[in-house]
Design a protein that fits this description.
Low-confidence stretches: none
Shape: elongated
Number of helices: 6
Strand content: 5-15%
Mean pLDDT: 84
Distance between the termini: 8 Å
Strand order of the largest sheet: 1-2
Number of strands: 2
Structural class: mainly alpha
Largest sheet: 2 strands, antiparallel
Amino acid sequence: MKKKYVLDRFISLCYDYIFVIIVLGIITFGLDFLNKQYVHFNHSWYVIIAIDVFVYLFGFSFIYLKLDGSVGKSLNDFYIESTYGTITYGRILFREIIMKQLFYLTVIGFLIEVIFFIVKKDTIHDYYLKTKVIKKGIDFSNRR
């Protein structure tokens, strides 16, 4: 396993979080501004949070499906390839949103992910969802 490959994947993950924070920040502050200027709805934060969750779950998964991976992967010339079947919207939703967030946003999950990566030379979400991340022009699929 090349160190640059692992570093590039980590940088891609950082790009993804920056992209999500910027987009959801624009949506949140934009809706809050519109509420304060025009609507004056008392419980607006419930609506804003619901819209943010909807965009996060369904909007980002759709973008990731069209890009063959996340925004960070596209910026670093990576793409996701299926090793079994085809990549569907449901697989992308489960891979990018549920599996990655479950393991990357909790300390225990992150430690499990690191240990799994050291042992299997693959991430948990790639291993269980039968996907692999490939750098355009270079195939790291023979990582074992």
